[in-house]
Write a structure and sequence with these properties.
heterodimer, A: about 110 residues, mainly beta, 7-stranded mixed sheet, 4-stranded antiparallel sheet, 11 strands, globular, B: about 110 residues, 5-stranded antiparallel sheet, 5-stranded mixed sheet
Chain lengths: ~110, ~110
């Protein structure tokens, strides 16, 4: 692995189903983030984690949960999907401890909730 | 007020043209910025960081005007492959904050 990977690449999901989007990075970055991007709009922060074992809420956290059991993985879970959660989901990471703040993004997961 | 404001465009320019777009920011304490580019429905990728008055990388030049609180991106000799959305992103003033992305400026370079 080089960088950030996300899985699945795309998914069609029935409303009410539970879904976990996976994100893994191999850069040993301390911070990780989940964004959603709706058509024609900017990225909106869902949840973030500044270090393993801690998480925080972003701009649009409702309906989503995250965990950060280790440095590399940051899964995003939709407990009961709704059509308004149809979006492209991007995971990102950054080396905040080094003070750079640049975020590196995964290729995204395209989720459609019917 | 939004943290950054960008003209959404699209800016339609012919190949070889020079194009510039501005980004105004509201937080006078912002010291540095990132320019990201995002191709249609793909992940944003860092184009350049702007830590002081400006930065130049090949055909791309970014300038920061603190007095007027704007940052500009100049692209010389535009290529078809430059077609993308360009996102101006303030670097957080603390080490533990996520970046805030606007919707960016769309550039379309035409043959």
């Amino acid at each position: 692995i080089a960088g950030i990977t996300q899985a699945p690449t795309s998914q069609i999901l029935a409303a009410g189903r539970r879904m976990t989007l996976r994100c893994t990075q191999d850069m040993r970055h301390n911070a990780m983030y989940w964004y959603r991007q709706d058509l024609g709009l900017g990225l909106r922060l869902i949840h973030y984690s500044n270090t393993a074992g801690t998480t925080g809420k972003g701009e649009v956290p409702d309906g989503y949960s995250v965990s950060r059991a280790n440095t590399d993985d940051f899964p995003l879970t939709l407990a009961s999907a709704v059509p308004s959660q149809t979006s492209v989901y991007f995971c990102a990471s950054s080396d905040q401890l080094a003070g750079y703040n640049e975020q590196f993004f995964g290729p995204g997961t395209r989720l459609t909730v019917l | 007020r939004k943290e950054v404001e960008q003209d959404p465009g699209p800016f339609n320019v012919p190949e070889g043209a020079t194009v510039a777009f501005n980004c105004t920011y509201s937080n006078s304490a912002s010291q540095s910025f990132f320019w990201y580019r995002q191709d249609c429905r793909k992940e944003p990728k860092l184009l350049m960081s702007v830590y002081s008055s400006g930065n130049e990388d090949g055909r791309f030049t970014a300038q920061l005007n603190r007095a007027s609180q704007y940052i500009s991106l100049l692209i010389r000799d535009s290529k078809l492959s430059d077609s993308a959305t360009y996102l101006c992103v303030p670097r957080p003033d603390t080490g533990r904050r996520a970046l805030t992305f606007g919707s960016g400026t769309r550039l379309q370079v035409q043959p």
